[in-house]
Inverse folding.
């Protein structure tokens, strides 16, 4: 991990406060989010304003992320904030290093199930460059995680690149592969619009488990054998693109961008969180 030299990329925050609302994908609860500018080196922070004396959860201070049943959660106890990955992916794309995200519920709103709404809200707030140089994790050696036929690896590389493979036993998805060198333009065009998805045969059981209570055909691809239920695909391979979106957000829980090549095979939030934990211990915790 290093700080960019003078003349290189600088830290950013938003120019002004913004606020938006919606229902959470998993809980179905309505929440309002306020994003507030912060100064250099403050980091990306979340605060639950519905909890009395709730401390800020700042990504630069601790690695407080874990996968919990199809979404990513920050914090612990009453101060948890869940389903943060789409907002974090948008923050990554805009190069935002410092921001306070206040929320009056335990889950961020789903918006349209992709990162596009978060990206547009943040961009409308404007961006302000700060005097301090950005911190970056540059991968120095390969890291690997493998569990039950699922794999996730990261290798040294000069740019941030993701190669992803999924393979579902359903005709409407099957085997999908996507490879992309990521920057803001490629993210907005190829990744940000991709919506979260689930299999139609799983939807009922997810509800029993208390998940997907805010899922609708407006924010979720409910995939049946012949395709999505009551909606149309934005890309022929929208599911694998959404997996890449989740991975970008799950790695940005580190609070700093990563430079390296990621190769994922049937990965998910749990493996993503384990890779982030490895990178945190190896690079971030030593600062």
């Amino acid at each position: 991990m290093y700080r960019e030299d003078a003349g290189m990329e600088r830290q950013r925050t938003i120019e002004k406060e913004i606020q938006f609302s919606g229902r959470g994908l998993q809980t179905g609860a309505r929440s309002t989010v306020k994003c507030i500018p912060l100064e250099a080196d403050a980091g990306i922070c979340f605060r639950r304003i519905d909890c009395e004396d709730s401390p800020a959860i700042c990504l630069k201070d601790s690695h407080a992320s874990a996968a919990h049943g199809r979404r990513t959660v920050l914090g612990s106890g009453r101060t948890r904030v869940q389903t943060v990955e789409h907002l974090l992916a948008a923050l990554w794309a805009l190069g935002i290093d410092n921001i306070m995200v206040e929320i009056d519920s335990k889950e961020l709103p789903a918006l349209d199930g992709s990162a596009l709404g978060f990206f547009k809200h943040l961009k409308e707030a404007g961006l302000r460059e700060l005097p301090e140089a950005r911190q970056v994790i540059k991968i120095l050696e390969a890291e690997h995680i493998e569990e039950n036929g699922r794999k996730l690896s990261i290798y040294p590389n000069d740019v941030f690149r993701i190669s992803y493979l999924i393979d579902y036993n359903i005709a409407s998805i099957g085997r999908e592969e996507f490879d992309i060198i990521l920057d803001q333009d490629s993210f907005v065009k190829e990744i940000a619009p991709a919506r979260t998805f689930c299999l139609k045969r799983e939807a009922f059981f997810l509800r029993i488990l208390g998940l997907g209570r805010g899922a609708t055909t407006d924010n979720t691809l409910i995939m049946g054998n012949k395709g999505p239920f009551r909606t149309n695909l934005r890309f022929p391979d929208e599911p694998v693109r959404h997996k890449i979106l989740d991975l970008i957000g799950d790695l940005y829980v580190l609070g700093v961008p990563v430079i390296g090549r990621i190769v994922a095979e049937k990965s998910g939030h749990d493996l993503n969180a384990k890779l982030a934990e490895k990178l945190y211990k190896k690079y971030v915790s030593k600062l």
Remarks:
- Residues 47 and 126 are 22 Å apart (CA to CA).
- The mean pLDDT is 91.
- The helical segments are 85-94, 116-125, 184-191, 200-208, 238-251, 269-284.
- The first helix runs from residue 85 to 94.
